Task: structure prediction
Amino acid sequence: MNSKRLLIVSVSVAISSAMSTLTELPVQCKHWTVEQRQAKLMQDVNAGQKSGALTEKESRKLRKNLANVARKKARMKSRTTGNLNTKDDSELQSSIDKTSTKIKNEKVELPRQLPGK
Amino acid sequence: MNKVTHPTFRSLPIALIALVAQSVLPLMSYAADTRTVKIASASTKNVPAWSKAIKVPYRSWIPVEKPHQVLLCVHGLGFSGESFSEFGRSMAGHGFAVYALDVRGFGQWMTNRKDDRINFEACMSDVEEALRSLRKSYPGLPVFLVGESMGGGIALQATSRNPGLVDGLICSVPSSDRYAKLSSELIVGTRYLMNRNKQIDITAEVLNKTTSSQKLKKQWSKEASNRMKLSPKELKQFTDFMKGNDDAAALVDKTPCLMLAGFKDKLVKPEGTIDLFNELSTPDKLLMVVGDGEHLLLEENQLSLQLDQLVTVWIKNESSSKHRGITAHP
Result:
């Protein structure tokens, strides 16, 4: 009887300690820098154009959007000592979000343009 | 130093292996290969060119000693990879492996009916494929993209799309800001409306403004590998493509760039090149305006000793730089 109680207590202690460890673990999410996102979106546009998911015109337009982000970043960097502050970074991230959404939308729109669809 | 020229149509990856093998062999002179190898069909109408195995016509100048840098050259409108002959020989003499490809619609592509017209998107894929092949064939070596005029625009846009494949960019007069731009666009526009496929002779427009030397004009107009007749449709494509250079320059944010302009250029305004230079996001950039330079600075034997030395030193410095793409300062 004692050994049964001991087993129950030890199992419950183990579960509770495991739970507490889990809740204490920091959330491991990848932080994408502005540069990484810019590079990834350019790759997405290139791949979209190659696969035919994006037309030449759409790709040109999306690259123009990415160029505008690059211009904005260059302007911000020239104002400071070459580094982006938190405010600039979040502003650029939001511009990239918009471009990213546009890329997704353009790619999603394609099936409707296919003949016979 | 031995150099090899390969004016043939072959798949770049296979040819590269052959070239590397040949460069090891003690060649006594140029191997001017005149074989005509059929290009594998790379249709550019219904299916994207990149979905096919791309066969790019090219020429190369390889030093006997193992090269430390690789250059891929893209020619200007109307010319072909052949126009980099002197540049290639000279750069190979400095120890660089030099490759020059033909842009779709020019050079060896003219012999293939399917690809005898300009196709910039297919050309962009050709450049990308060539860069990948070169990186594979020369692992660890920095690859520099060199382009003049239209080729400068192609090189600039290729770098903006594939920054990871280009370690440095040399861009000579890539601007679309031409003298008498409006009148020439009006002529092309009118011809386009009349018959967009009927070819126009651009010899007067291009050659007269490219050089003041009568001898060179005659020489270039007679050169079989040059193409000076283009349809209004192709010229419109060219104009539209070159308009993308501003955005491409803004997108080059890490690749080191050397931009060149000729002060006596009568075809493209040097100010246009300076504007493009300002658009470049990369801090590692250098602009050189050649005082007595006309439109062509690298191609068609126009490379001056001064420019030859500048280009060589720039490439070598960038290759060994610890701050490549970050700052031009040591």
Notes: Chain A has four helices and no strands. The interface with chain B takes residues 35, 38-39, 42, 46, 49-50, 52, 56, 60, 63-64, 66-68, 70-71, 73-74, 82 of chain A (CB under 8 Å). Confidence is low (pLDDT under 50) at residues 111-117 of chain A.
